Amino acid sequence: MDSKGLKTLINYYCQERYFHHVVLVASEGMKRYGSDPVFRFYHAYGTLMEGKIQEALREFEAIKNKQDVSLCSLIALIYAHKMSPNPDREAILESDARVKEQRKGADQKALYYAGLFLWHIGRHDKAREYIERMIKMPNSSNEGQILKAWLDIARGNEPYAKKALKYFKEILQDEKDIFALLGKARCLEMLQNYSGALETVNQIIVNFPSFLPAFIKKMKLQLALQDWDQMVETAQRLLLQDNQNVEALRMLALYYLCREGNVEKAATTLEHLGNALDVMEPQNAELFYKVTKAFSRTCGRNQLILQKVQTLLEKAFTLSPQQSEFAAEIGYQMILQGKVKEALTWYQTAMTLDNTSISALTGFIRSQLMDGQLQEADQQLEFLSEVQQSIEKSTELIYLHVILAMKKNKQQEEVIHLLNDVLDTHFLQLEDVPLSIQYFETLNPDFLLEIITEYLNFCPMLPASPGQALAPFFRRCTLVLETIVRTVPGLLQAVFLIAKVKYLSGNIEAAFNNLQYCLDHNPSYADAHLLMAQVYLSQEKFKQCSQSLELCLSYNFDVREYPLYHLIKAQSQKKMGEITEAVKTLHMAMNLPGMRRTGASSKSQGRKTEVDAAHRLSIFLELVEVHRLNGEQHEAAKVLQDAIHEFSGTSEELRVTIANADLALAQGDAEQALRILRNVTAEQPYFIEAKEKMADIYLKHRKEKMLYITCYREIAERMPSPRSFLLLGDAYMNIQEPEEAIVAYEQALSQNPKDGTLASKIGKALVKTHNYSKAITYYEAALKSGQQNYLCYDLAELLLKLKLYEKAEKVLQHALAHEPVNELSALMEDGRSQVLLAKVYNKMERPGDAVTALQQARELQARILKRVQMEQPDAVPAQKHLAAEICAEIAKHSVAQQDYEKAIMFYREALVHCETDNKIMLELARLYLAQGDPDACLRHCMMLLQSDQDNEAATMMMADIMFRKQDYEQAVFHLQQLLERKPDNYMTLSRLIDLLRRCGKFDDIPRFFVMAEKRNPRAKLEPGFQYCKGLYLWYTGEPNDALRHFNKARKDSEWGQNALYNMIEICLNPDNETIGGEVFENLDGDLGNSTEKQESVQLAVRTAEKLLKELKPQTIQGHVQLRIMENYCLMATKQKSNVEQALNTFTEIAKSENDHIPALLGMATAYMILKQTPKARNQLKRIAKMNWNAIDAEEFEKSWLLLADIYIQSAKYDMAEDLLRQCLRHNRSCCKAYEYMGYIMEKEQAYSDAASNYEMAWKYGNQTNPAVGYRLAFNYLKAKRYVDAIDICHQVLEAHPTYPKIRKDILDKARASLRP
């Protein structure tokens, strides 16, 4: 680094008050540039500020005659003498005279270094005077302009920062001056343009890579931009160059503590920081003091961190024992560690050092209050309040009044008013402070958590019920805690308190999520386990409640002394019906120290007493309740009387009154309950609760809506506040009177016009009245008057519902048209709006715009998810769900565009956000199946069924995959499981019937019909049942019965279309023959009356044509299927012209629809009817080469059978057998395949094998086809199985007495063969 760079480095360290660094850099400058007196001057200044006054004086004396530094050395001599314990007045006067003399003829350099020194010691006006003289000189350098701009920055206000920025920009046009670049970055930082400042700092790093302050600045700007990850990266990069860099270690320690909540790492880094300070700034007491403040206020009173901080503070006090503020800070540390006596001593020391120190006096009074010295503290506080009247309000002073008011048991309203004042004053100090070390110190999370704890002392014990209005301070607590968690997510106490506020607000799920976050990060957090037990109790999860109590006890044995522990345990036992155990638990609680006023110690416990009072009363009231449930009414009344005596004259007295009313109500005496509650007056603290209880009795027990509303009207009249009118509005909504509710809400809004929640409630009430136009007008007016932006969402949602898509689009675009935001809540709002905008675009049929909106929402959601886990843990599940919803929507659009890979990618991303989202998993499984990846589909279905074993769609898909894999047994197993849970699920039953047919298990089917009838006595009237029955009868060879059942389902919207298709198929082929096949046609040609058969066929064709007209397909594939069926009807007439017409249609479909199996089969069938066998064979061979699929399973089977028929006709038995075996692999009950196999065996004179195959054909044809029976009997005869042949003949003749030839050809011959 050159001379100029070293001087800039020195200037930086002077401003940051790193004086040992100044000495080190100046020493380096002296080594390199020994002739330059400026480095000697700075060495002397650094030495002076390290407290070595005499040494510094000698150094200044040595250079006071050097031209460039003469003037500044004389000013420094005066400054050094004044710092001395015994100033040399003569030397000061002599130096002062020389300064005046030299100033007259000083050149530019002398004036510049004098101004620079004066700037460093804080005498900005004097510095400006010197620099302005320098600038007026001819040919003045840019150095003066740069320093003047820095002096403008020192004024600390925006206009001067803009002016300075202008100077810096002008100078930087000519040269890349490092000091000017630093100044420009500082100006931009002051103007809150952190990105611009960061860009400038990056320029410094690029041009001057060894200038370490640029990295420090970058680190701080990244923190201001809330980019913690980048800040950590910069800090680690800085430590690689300087492993003892104080600022980098400080930032890392802060990151580990505040962001990660990793106390061990933070403590280790703090230790490294202390060591670095010992080496790099050993005499810098102020720095030792400064680095501690942020840590003590953000560590959640962790003893390990506080010990490290105390060590550093004690070092600061040792170095500078005259500093009152150091002693006061050590006193504050003692308070944080709970050492009140030591705190009093240190504050006393601080007051001795500086009796005007406000921080020492406030600390001393606070210690007195904690020590129970109320009278002394009260007097001191009165004195301090009078002193402070002349200056601005102090947060600490107001807080002392809060503590005193609590100690004196002042009214709740008075204390809450003071607490509100504390928060308002405190947050005023944070205005315009960027995220920085200073922000953490000023925010003081520890102090804020104390305030929140004070607020929570006034909360009810039980969570609010749905719809119940909450005390206004709940919202204050939530806002404060969210600010803390957003800034210091590692502070688990804040997350715990959010959980407590959410629990008491009735938001149990949010409380659970926050507690889960606490326990994930610290499983030994006893208080979190205790609150989790309460959460489980309110969710009626009693087993988990007990487990949480056990865990709490295992981590902190002292909880046995907490009344709350016993209270939760007793409530859990009560809910589980263990009343006797609950009584024992509560009696144990009653015997705890301090449970009764007479036994309580006189020593004041401060806030704890107040909390204990609430818990004590809850124990009494719970004991009343369990005695009552145990049938011990006398004991219950006795305990209640004890409670009345115990709590009379206390703030809890009215809770006993309300409990008394509850007891009367539980005993069925509503009138007595009302009489008790009427005695509560508007002046008493629980007036609203009493009136709400009365209203509840009127509505639920006496069903009197008017008296119910009267209670809320009385609240509004006696206490006309926004909360009262809100309660009245909610009450009107509760009894379905939205018009009156709107009036009440408007009154609340007039008193609190900035409350967007009220505006939203009015809008929703207007929607409930169906007064949509007024609702729209209201929302628009509310938005114009500057209401919260989330009303835009409500309005857009309403416009979408009303199909006013263009208006909805405009509203959402307006809501999204703003400067980039970094607030988490604003990002969440934008994310929601983008998702709604995508829905609007979907309705407007603008898929491209919808995808763009969803992609923007996805980017926002990525940013939100990165931060929400730290800053707002309770919102994590909802935000993850929204992220999953966004990805799933993008995936749906990708499916519509047939970009399946992209769809799969987005569905998988959705599952990363919501691993257990069954809907998304199902869609992904479907997509894998459609893509021909059954293994991936199967994997997702199995995962889905692990979390939801009753998921019908997943089970069906599993069965479908097994079906495709020809693992029919597994497919059947999955469907059977589903049907056993829900026997009247006819969609599943229809699939099961098909699968059992393919497994050859017809005998298993009837029991499922019985199960369905048992589940639903009216099952036989259900179209689904009739359809399934028809399917079963059709498959078992009873076409006429099947037709009757299908006919009963034919008019149904769900089952009708499939029933019609099946009826048409039965009409066209009732005996399930191979249409176009010639093997059995030739064989059976002379059987039966051919004229009669032809008439029957013609009638069936006409019926099929009528049924075709009823078909109303909804899809393209449905229309193609209809055309196929129409042409099969034409072929069934066997008229050549019709068959040729059908052939043309099939050919046309086959050309337009690639590899369309039904069309190819239709062509082959038509060719066979037209006796063009080679052409038919060619089409069938095409089909035979294709991969089998479940959708075309029936057509594949018919194709293979027809091709086998052709091969048999040509005596190509081996080829035919291969095809028939393929048929039987896919359908073990295929009668026709067995029949053909039997025929082949018969031709080969293997009569036993032929008989075996005909047996199967006879069995699966339900012994109804006489031709099969004839051939079975014939082969039995040939195989010399005469008895079996006779049996089959009798079966055939019983069903078909006139069946020709069988008696003569087989029966008589078999009988003759049996005779001896």
Automatic annotation (TrEMBL):
What are the alphabetically sorted keywords of the record?
Cell projection, Cilium, Cytoplasm, Cytoskeleton, Repeat, TPR repeat
Tetratricopeptide repeat protein 21A/21B fifth ARM repeats domain residues? 952-1068
Location of the Tetratricopeptide repeat protein 21A/21B N-terminal ARM repeat domain: 10-232
Q: Where are the TPR repeats?
A: 722-755, 952-985
Question: Main localization of the protein?
Answer: cytoplasm
Q: Name one GO cellular component term.
A: intraciliary transport particle A
Q: What is this protein called?
A: Tetratricopeptide repeat protein 21B
Task: State the organism of origin.
Answer: Cavia porcellus (Guinea pig)
